[in-house]
Amino acid sequence: MQKVLIVCYYWPPAGGPGVQRWLKFVKYLPEFDVEPIVFVPENPSYPIIDESLENDIPKGTRIIKQPIFEPYGLASIFSKKKTKRISSGIIQKHKKQSVLERILLWVRGNFFIPDARKYWVKSSVKVLSDMMREEEIQTIITTGPPHSVHLIGLQLKAKYELRWIADFRDPWTSIGYHKKLKLTKSSQLKHKRLEKQVLNSADKIIVTSNRTKQEFEEITQKPIEVITNGYDEDSITTELDKKFTVSHIGSLLTDRNPTMLWEVLQDMCNENQEFKNELQIQLVGVVGDGVKESLANHHLKDNTTDLGYISHTNVLELQAKSQVLLLLEINSEETQGIIPGKLFEYFNAQRPILALGPENWEAGKMVHETKSGQSFTSKDKSDLKNVLLEWFRAFQKEELVSNSEGIEKYSRRELTRKLANTISWESS
Fold this sequence. Notes:
- The chain is an alpha/beta fold.
- The protein has 16 helices and 13 strands.
- Strands 3-2-1-4-5-6-7 form a seven-stranded parallel beta sheet, with helices on both faces. Strands 10-9-8-11-12-13 form a six-stranded parallel beta sheet, with helices on both faces.
- Helix 5 packs across helix 6, helix 9 packs across helix 15 and helix 12 packs across helix 13.
- The chain is globular.
């Protein structure tokens, strides 16, 4: 069995989709003759905690932990809430930022490049150098963000004969929040240089979307493989909600506020008292103040339940019970390649998906291709209303179903098979 070292920052008890990607790869890799050894921080400051995910760590998995110094711990003295929000990649619009928040952003963007986990690199390289020599490990995988994790691979690659695969769960310099970090020109150039160095030093690159692959192909000639996120094949048997529930899972910040949807739902409530009585909007995760204000302005507050963060186990049940699952993305060219991790669990929930995002949105195309729901842009208000009316009538007859096709290729096991082939290709 081939040993592979996996270096990642997010690991249980951290919560969120970034944890689940490699937690599930680690679960299935032994089936494909690969022994994963996981290297994670010992004392990280995770913005989200979900202890239930610790139950998913396969028994016998070898996990090595190395202490990490994170300056966010010092910054939290000034404002724990603001520091935690920035650490999560949640950045408010400029006009809503306090003076302290602007200072923290400037410091974060210009003093900690590529990110505030950079101080984990040096000590990790030292520890892993000894281990890789002793155990003759020839393949290493780094996964970011945080992209400082890739610098561990970069330095190990420079020192030893090894095969290095760099996994990008999100883009680096083209991701939306990057422009909000108040970077100086020299800091921007440093990010670009590091990104280019990583992309051209790794033996192979893995990305989660075709759009990111196209962006990286302009920077490097190295082979790039698209391996999306996915879903576990576990099925949940539960009764559907009695209300016409429209559920959104994950952070719903003001930039992603689906104003057009709220307008449509308000119109439908005004026109149909029965629809108003049955409508239930369920929000799971962090909800921006602008979203809450928008819901109130459209007289939908009484139809909305804000559940906050709930465990992944409970999320799976809620998705399976919901009448409609809501998938949202910011309407911009930069977000066309964003494929939210929740989409794949939506597939597995087998409930109709209502997707609203930019034109040529990769996730929206996947919804259409799998016949798992409908996708709309900001220009499709009347079409959106017609579909919701159609779905509501089907709900009233207890006939609202999803007849999706071809989602099997997104199961975690099949995606791990693809990853194992990538590793095998590297070792041949």
